[in-house]
What does this fold into?
Amino acid sequence: MSQFSRRKLIYTGLAAAAGVSGLGVAASLAQKYGLVPPDHGGLYGLGETLTYASQRLLTRHSFAREFSRSQISERPLANEIAPLSETFKRLQAGGFADWRLTVDGMVVRPGSFSLDQLKSYPSRSQITELSCEEGWTYIAEWIGVPLSHVLNLVGTHPQARYVVYFSLEPYWWESIDMADAMHPQTFLTYGMNGNVLPVGNGGPLRLRLPRQLGYKSVKFITHLTVTDSMKKFGKGLGSASPEGGYAWYAGI
Amino acid sequence: MEIVVSHPRFYWGETGNVLTTPLFKIPIPSSRSLVPTGYGYVMPDQNGWSRALHFQSAWIVVFTGLLYVIWGLVTGHFRRGLVPAKNDLSRRGIWTVIANHLRFKRPSGEQAWSYNVLQRLTYLFVIFILFPLVIWTGLAMSPAFVSAFPATVTLLGGRQTARTLHFFITLALTFFLLVHVVLVSLAGFRSRVRAMITGHTDTDTEGA
It folds into this structure.
């Protein structure tokens, strides 16, 4: 092994030192520009961070593909859900007239919105694909009000970093960064294919996020909280998904 | 493979789900009760960590793959070691190699430490066709990635087509790996692996 000369050893040492300090600089830059996901720890944290950081850099302003009306799936698949709670059934019996969306946290004017109020805001529609992490997909027209409209109404604080959203059903909550929250295709969805959004597809209110996998589009939304840190929520990993082993960021 | 278990059905085109007709199904039980497999039970869900492992490994493949390709281009390894010589590419040249294989005639001396024309073509195919394709079809399934680069999926003909191609390319790469390991073992596992890691051959200790 004579080829390992002293000079080679010195060069290798210098390269390693440069590599380690380079990684340190990269990590602090990533933190500063919000490229580190809440579930960056653990065995697979590196992979999650690389995916989130690179996709956030590439996709901050990109739009999910929109399809033509003829490409809408004949039958929009309603995935299985846990049996609905008594509270949900009671609201359903009343035609969801008493359904409320409360918005609080780092906002200037916390509020509570009925479905009729949400429907009175400028309505938008998008024909986008729902992609499940399991592999299946369908295309539908989704009708709703952009989340950004509601966030602008309540006025978010400048230090806001995440919007946390909760289902009426227990243990079902997610969060997204402000780039996704303010994205024009992120809807509080109440309609599908020209009709009311069916309960099976998340009605009466679903947060629809076409640039991420289906499990980020939580059904039966009743509560939004704006925050600067995910540490205070659940186990601090960002949402219920990482607590069950799934990635917080689901753009892949 | 674990991820396929959650939906062991494959489609062609943009969309596909249990309400549409699949291209084909894999006759295994699923980890989702949504999928009608004909089996009376549902497997435990292992998708969370499987996906995390998959994507972290994908990052490692991309980084080491890039380093390898840059190194191969810079040092001329691909040009000297992998691009077949012109006269080897003739039908006769290829046929000689196949015939030697079928006769179980082992190359000896210098020849044994250089790749023959079939090996060269296989390696080039794996490095420059299969690996880029598996990465491409994988990225084409990412809703966020295709929002920035929609052509990556429209060129393939849709997200379900990308998924089906991804599956078959994975099978091809697995097949390559298995055959590769078997042939390395036949050629003398210890000396070959030592050569792969150190880059030095020691023909005196060649076992096989």
In short: The longest helix of chain B spans residues 47-75. Chain B has nine helices and two strands.
